[in-house]
Backbone:
């Protein structure tokens, strides 16, 4: 079915149980879909924009209140919405990084952090992961020392994943931030896989910036996200423009340089706002999501030749699994080769595993119901059994 | 009526004739609203993202085709979608401007161009407007010479409005670009008020970059926009990342630094794509929009003490008007003061003039039907007559 012109209607979330690693937390709530319909038009939130003409001052719809609540909810002092987490990284990098400055990322950092630093002219160095694939305070301290020797100055910033995209590991942010504070280096928390699905309190973690992704974990349309910070840092990253026209003498009031003025002027922001009450509630039930993740990880581990590469027992819904000794062995001789696996899942109403992947892959169980979790777990075991893989 | 939580349903476009200066060209088409509903979920366009994993390579939905068509339609070689025109300015500034470099904007430039240059460390100089409030080739040449003397180097870039936000004037881009070429300075066309409502051909205008706004003029949700360029410049502004992890050795393939990888991963892009066939058709009927603009401008000018400040006869739907000698005189003694004017318009089903404005204000007639145009024209004249302002 076409929704418009040559564009097929998307019905993945209606027809399938979707365990795609990046899509799970960004499915809209029914509330968000209603807001999306009501605020689809371009500058839809600007009907009642009055002086001083900035998005976060708009009272109707209640955008100003939302900004205040968002900051408080993240345990920070000030928050702004941004077109995706990456634009939050860019704003922080743009504020602090001068050409040639070293910036610490980690061995598990997302590519968008690399390009944010590259865009600002900085030089990336990675904090190594330990043998458990964790970023530790100890490795952070060592890397700070190493970089300081190399560049004759300490790293300008540290960007660290709260939960990384590779393993879904929850890292020791408090320990890392404590080390960073000893060197007076600001820390940015990449909360793309935590903000909106787990409780996150930036002050309690000791970080300077919290970045979240609306479309990844806050049940919001893309591109959307949040950048929250402390009172101390807000004046830096949210500094207002100092530009002045040499001919006209124009100045531009309270427009913020790194935000480029207003950011999300319509459907994206309204989706975030409409989902927010649900999001605030759902983070309180993270234990349920962890329980679901464990059920599916246990099912996979019961299949001979299968190893969960993420921390066990699972403490996050995003999981990395190695099926080289199980499903990939089947793929070697199956007439559909590696595609048999995604096909078998699809027959059972499950999607989100890249077709052809049977070696090392990821899935995300976030937001599934109890019944869906049981069905996914059973499906993995069934597919193994039907293809002659022993199940313990 | 609430659409979600404490958020009122937006019904401005359903209940009123909206002549807001910035909203007219960004109202969704019915096709876009259908796509918005189908693709509301966060990463909705990523279902079939395969190697090399970049937005503009996705075949289903037909995002790759859309990118090619968009470039061709703008008379350029390569196009990317961006989260608003301002992010297009930022990408170009980020590519070319080093700290302290002079960049030419104009006396009619939008604030987002100023912050883009400020963000990249550049120094803005304005090309003066002439007495008719136009940016001319002559003034451009003079300013280039002046800046070159001041900075001991020529401007690094010139950003020029195709149609400016203050008067809705169509500027002599060909002439300006010809001058810029003599000095070998790249020119960016800000097409926020042209791309999507008028025919725009970047190569024929002689510019290096064309930037358009989805939510301002392409019937698309916010934030969205386009940055298109020539084959020569594409390798610069769309350069791919050179980042490499020092510990992991990771590289990040064909992710583009200034785009920060992918840009519009869901509803915003799908809204643009769904509206695109309608947008391509509607730019061919610009003459109709100009005729409508003239009807309303004529009605306003027939009201004593009223002056159209934009070019007459009107050649754009965005218009600046001075009613200090008419509606503002009424406001002096009216019990509702300046608010009487927006109130009277609202009674007649017309919205989009900032409540309280009766001195110098702007309106946009884009997209109104013939009957709506007649009604708006008659309404201005009626409000004048009922308040004792002579009408010629």
Residues:
């Amino acid at each position: 079915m076409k929704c418009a012109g040559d564009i097929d209607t998307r019905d993945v979330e209606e027809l399938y149980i979707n365990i795609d690693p990046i899509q799970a937390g960004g499915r809209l709530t029914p509330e968000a879909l209603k807001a999306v319909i009501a605020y689809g038009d371009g500058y839809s939130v600007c009907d009642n924009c009055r002086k001083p003409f900035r998005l976060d001052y708009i009272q109707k719809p209640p955008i100003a209140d939302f900004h205040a609540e968002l900051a408080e909810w993240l345990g920070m002092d000030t928050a702004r919405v941004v077109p995706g987490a990456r634009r939050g990284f860019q704003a922080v990098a743009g504020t602090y990084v001068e050409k040639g400055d070293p910036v610490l990322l980690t061995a598990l950092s997302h590519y968008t952090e690399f390009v944010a630093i590259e865009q600002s002219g900085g030089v990336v160095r990675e904090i190594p992961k330990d043998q458990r694939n964790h970023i530790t305070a100890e490795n952070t301290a060592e890397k700070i020392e190493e970089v300081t020797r190399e560049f004759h100055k300490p790293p300008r910033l540290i960007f660290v994943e709260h939960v990384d995209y590779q393993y879904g590991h929850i890292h020791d942010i408090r320990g890392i931030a404590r080390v960073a504070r000893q060197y007076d280096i600001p820390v940015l928390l990449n909360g793309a896989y935590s903000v909106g699905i787990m409780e996150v309190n930036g002050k309690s973690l000791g970080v300077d910036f919290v970045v979240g992704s609306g479309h990844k974990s806050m049940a919001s349309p893309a591109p959307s996200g949040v950048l929250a910070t402390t009172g101390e840092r807000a004046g830096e990253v949210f500094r207002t423009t100092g530009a002045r026209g040499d001919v006209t003498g124009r100045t531009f009031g309270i427009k913020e340089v790194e935000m480029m003025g207003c950011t999300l002027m319509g459907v994206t922001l309204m989706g975030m706002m409409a989902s927010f009450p649900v999001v605030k509630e759902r983070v309180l039930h993270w234990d349920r999501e962890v329980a679901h993740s464990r059920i599916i990880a246990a099912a996979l581990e019961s299949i001979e030749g299968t190893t969960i590469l993420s921390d066990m027992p699972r403490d996050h819904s995003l999981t990395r699994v190695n099926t080289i000794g199980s499903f990939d062995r089947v793929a070697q001789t199956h007439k559909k080769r590696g595609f048999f696996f995604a096909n078998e899942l699809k027959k059972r109403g499950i999607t989100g595993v890249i077709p052809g992947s049977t070696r090392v892959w990821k899935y995300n169980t976030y937001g599934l119901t109890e019944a869906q979790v049981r069905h996914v777990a059973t499906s993995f075991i069934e597919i193994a059994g039907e293809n002659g893989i022993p199940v313990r």
User: Anything to note?
Assistant: The longest helix of chain B spans residues 370-386.
